[in-house]
Amino acid sequence: MKVTVMGAGWVGIVSAAAFARFGHEVVCTDIRDERIVALNSGDLPFFEPGLFELVAEGLASGRLQFSLGTDETIREADVVMCAVGTPPTANGSADLSAVFECARQFGRASVKKSVFVIKSTVPAGTAQRCKEIIEEEQRLRQTNLSFSVASNPEFLAEGNAVRDALTPERVVVGCDSERYFNFFEELYAPLIAQNIPVVFMSVASSELTKYAANAFLATKLSFINEIANYAEIVGADPREVVKGIGLDSRIGPKFLRPGVGYGGSCFPKDVRALIASGNEAGYRFRILPEVDRVNTFQRVRYYEKLSGALGGVKGRRIVIWGLSYKPETDDIRESPALYFIDRLQQEGADIVAYDPRVKESIHSVFPALALAPSAEESLKGADALVLLTEWEEFSKLTVAEIRAKMLGSVIVDGRGVWKEIQNGLIT
Ligand code: UGA
Q: Of 33, 177, 301, 338, which residue is least crowded by CB atoms under 10 Å?
């Protein structure tokens, strides 16, 4: 199959490389010339385990190409997949202008029966608006080509995206016209052969499935954070509680690690976008605003553990371990570290940070932030250590080893890494 993926961002590149592995002829496009040049020579704009190898394999086989998003890249494609960004607007709703621009280009350029597939995260009703845009473009060209607009959300988690793309737990396809199901059966044939479920549903259901999945996981996290906060007061151990409930298969053991709260470009944005699209549709979500509030509160709570243990942070040397919002990525968007550093700077702390992957990019937010060359180096003269991302190299060190290298003894464990640390704090 000929597949064009519009948008050479994280989702677009991972998806395009996976489709090339599935045996399709893939062009991944972008409007940024320098990004295309870099990608064609194998340079990735971010770190994602296994992706460099998968892209290199696609480029070497000739099945994967990167190109500027010209009309030619759309003309002959069977499937045109839109994977452009949907950043938040001021009221939290998703900015869909790039998605609509892709639909317009598809309407202008396609010359054969094909499907326009929305992979970007978009609220229910977006595919319908894209359909109208494409019809309008076809009217202007005085053509009446057969096409369908489908939704095929991604469930890729950063740090695990290659595995999630090559062996997903499920593929969701929203397609209102059965005449186009065969496009997806061919697109995902290698997955269907492995008995991975490809679930067909209406377009609106598929669009909502994406938000529902992320909002549910975010709810699970805020729920367990509240249980952990309460456990601390009544003398229960949240880790034991998590074990106790996680063995119930209806609950499951995953996404129950309490701590400093979730970050990243997905959960915070998608929870707020779902609230906003509910409001627009006349439905006021009651749980989701609390999910968001609990999550924001977690970082404040952990900050106050630190500040309380030190009797104020002014002039104290504080070490931050972990700048990315989770391990195995160099992404700092909505990372709890940003809140900590900002507040520590405002309150006059002397900060040094270390992250195995995040280096200069943090200086675009905090130009003067001191970075240590290694975790151990960072501890010299430290009054306190705050762990905000559970990179494996941190958990290899014991609390005793860490404290032996520090000046003080306060450790805030924002991710529940060390067994010896109860409720995220040891003084
Ligand atoms: C999330 C979803 O997991 C993906 O399925 C989805 O495709 C993606 O969003 C997206 O919409 O693109 P991601 O944000 O990359 O993926 O990472 P997660 O592994 O879900 O972690 C999100 C946050 O939750 C991180 O800050 C992590 O530290 C936190 N978390 C996770 C916890 O605090 N506790 C846990 O037990 C698990």
A: 33
Say if residue 234 is exposed, middle or buried (CB neighbours under 10 Å; 0-12, 13-18, 19+). Answer: exposed
CA distance 217 to 267: 8
Query: Where does CATH 3.40.50.720 sit in the chain?
Result: 2-201, 229-426
Express each pLDDT in 327-341 by its tens digit.
Answer: 999 999 999 999 999
| Cβ of residue 154 lying under 6 Å from some atom of ligand 1 | yes
Nearest-CA residue for atom 13 of ligand 1: 157
Query: Quick one: which atom of ligand 1 is closest to the CA of 261?
Result: 33
Nearest to 375 by CA among 319, 314, 317: 319
Classified by CATH at the fold level, domain 2-201 comes out as: Rossmann fold (3.40.50)
Q: Is 266 a catalytic residue?
A: yes
Is 119's C-beta closer than 6 angstroms to any atom of ligand 1? Answer: no
Nearest to 225 by CA among 252, 259, 253, 254: 259
Question: What percent helix, strand, coil does the chain show, rounded to 5?
Answer: 45, 15, 40
pLDDT tens digits along 109-130: 999 999 999 999 999 999 999 9
